[in-house]
Amino acid sequence: MNLDQLLTGARDEIAQATAPIDDRTLTRVRGTVRRARIQRHTFESVGAAACAGVLGLGAWALSSPDGDPVDPATRSSTPEPSSAPTTEPTTAPTSAPTTAVDDGPVARAAEVDDATVLARLSAPRTGERWFDEALDASDALDALFTPAELANGPEYHLYLVGDREASAIYALAFPPVNDDVVQWGSRVELYEIDEDGPRAILCPSARTGDACAKDFSSSKAVADDDTFYDTLTLPASIEVGDGWALSTETVRGDVTRVAGLPASLADANEKLEELTSLGSLTVVRRELPSSVDGLRSYGYAVLTPFGTILPIADADVPGLDYLGITWDDGVDRSTQVADGDWARYAQAAGAGTCTTAQFSVESTHIPAQWRTAGVTADGRDVVVPVSGSPLATAVHAWQLEHSGTIDTDTGQTLTGLDAGYRYATVGEFLDAQSLYGVEGPDGEWHLHLRPEATNVVWECA
Amino acid sequence: MARPWEQLLDQVARERWPRLVAHAALVAGSTSEAPDLVQEALIATFRGRARFTTVEQAEAYVRRAIASRAVDEARRRRRERLVALRAAAQPSPPDTVEPPGPGRDVVRALALLSPRERACVVLRQMEDLSIAETAMVLTLSEGSVKRYTADGLSKLAEILGTHPHTETDDERVPVRPAPTPRIIPGGAR
């Protein structure tokens, strides 16, 4: 046998013993090529400015400890569906997922049980990766806007926050925008950019019933309501303590917050305290400014893996449904007195009307200072301060003293009772069951104010 | 819908993967490194502007990319090993033993060649690349290609105990031109 025959024979033997390329390897190769082509495409067509973000992506990918390209969304192997997030499952129901996490097509579903949602938060099918830190990509804004729009529009901030297969994921943040009357809230929009250009991600949740953003700001992007992320899909219920759970129903239906709020703009000077980790999501309570001595005030929120914040709506926090309380004294207080959505739910006892804080906590809770006075719609005991409570006196005093508005006829500033505050004395304040408490997680008492007992203001801005 | 380059990539990968892996095993002298080498070559080939429109053309590009990357990779590893050995003053670690498998003897024999010798042998003998094409792929002079090919074939033949390649004329390297025709006394002419 000559050398040619040996070489050819060896080649044929090896080829015959080699299995065809598997889908995972091919997807990895394809994804890497896509990213490389995006980078080239960006250099050539979008311009040097837009390169910064993509180069940032490249730099991140190079420095990432896991240098492998994105796992395909079609992955069908490990991990097992029953694998929980890094902490023990804390979300009800705790039963095993009814659907296999990584089996079957990667598609949205109308119903996804929470165990499955939780498992996917840690082991997404959808291939997205979020950077540890968002990278400033303001230089790439011209991929989304024309020069004229950038010159005349709001002060946009663009961040490179992750990638998915061949796409780079960007978060576009808006600072609050003022017109003559209203300060429009800040918000965040998500975009993916690949070699075909930018797409606005309108429906990031894997649950079909969850909200989709109705519009987006970029004039250059096309609407994308197909792309979704397992890592941004909220469970229906989040348990933060034994038998104490937050619902996410309202926030999941909010079309203005599908990508959350900029955490730094959600509220000034707030501190975040982690309550539980749900894989890519982190449940926190936000410490917000508190005005009454001895009270600290908080609101619940979920942090997304790219740093935005999804405040849990008042409707979804146990204890805030003042109108649903059944009072032991037989008085029906189920009718909303003040106008406006703001008055549908109670708020934190230690802050004013314009707060987003949902509950306050005493530095020291003295049970003797409280008495049971009713029960919430979901069966939780409601306590109110006893007569002579120093805390009730302090809360009433602050709300009364900080009430103020403008007489629209005279233009005069009105304060206190003249401004329309309802309760002249702490006795009236207590009789109206204005300040109440509901036991929260870990035996902590959450103190709330009925909406009408909060200070009167001209407007919240 | 997949873009044209994606369709071509899929087709090359799905239809030609075993052949490409076999090619990589020979050119790298290692079956275990071959799949990674093919992946890298596919990426390198398709990340740039398309210079090909058919599967055959694309495969040819991938094969050449495999060869050039195999040489680069082998040289890089050798450099790293030398640096490490100098630093640690340690004896050279044993070379990786080729595991049992198809074509093992040939792959093991190829592994004993230098990376350039191996690449030249495979490209010239199995891919039918010309000397000029091989020189371009491996960034060598044509003379070097001839020399590496001849040396590689000679070593292989010795290791495998077989006859050298039968068509070795173009691998013969003239040492120096003969100044005058040699006259063979009593020659047949």
Could you explain how this protein is built, in words?
Chain B: InterPro entries: RNA_pol_sigma-70-like (IPR039425), RNA_pol_sigma-70_dom (IPR014284), RNA_pol_sigma70_r2 (IPR007627), RNA_pol_sigma70_r4_t2 (IPR013249), RNA_pol_sigma_r2 (IPR013325), RNA_pol_sigma_r3/r4-like (IPR013324), WH-like_DNA-bd_sf (IPR036388). The complex is a heterodimer of chains A (461) and B (189). Chain A is α+β, with helices and mostly antiparallel strands. Chain A folds into two domains: 23-68 and 124-232, no CATH class; 241-453, no CATH class. Chain A contains nine helices and 24 strands. Chain A has helices at residues 3-17, 23-46, 48-63, 114-122, 147-152, 249-252, 263-266, 390-401, 426-431, and strands spanning 128-136, 157-164, 167-174, 177-178, 183-184, 187-194, 197-201, 222-224, 237-241, 244-247, 261-262, 271-278, 281-288, 295-303, 308-311, 326-327, 347-348, 359-362, 370-375, 381-385, 404-406, 413-415, 435-439, 445-449. In chain A, strands 1-2-3-6-7-8 form a six-stranded mixed β-sheet. In chain A, strands 11, 12, 13, 14, 15 and 18 form a six-stranded antiparallel β-sheet that branches. Chain A has a six-stranded antiparallel β-sheet with strand order 16-19-20-23-24-17, with helices on one face. In chain A, strand 9 (237-241) and strand 10 form a beta hairpin. The longest helix of chain A is centred in the N-terminal third of the chain and has 24 residues, at 23-46. Chain A is elongated. Chain A starts with a helix and ends in a 12-residue tail after the last strand. Chain B has 189 residues and is mainly α. Chain B has one domain: PhyR, sigma-like (SL) domain (Butyryl-CoA Dehydrogenase, subunit A, domain 3), CATH 1.20.140. The model of chain B is unreliable at 89-95 and 166-189 (pLDDT under 50). Chains A and B meet through helix 1 and helix 2 of A and helix 1, helix 2, helix 4, helix 5 and helix 7 of B.
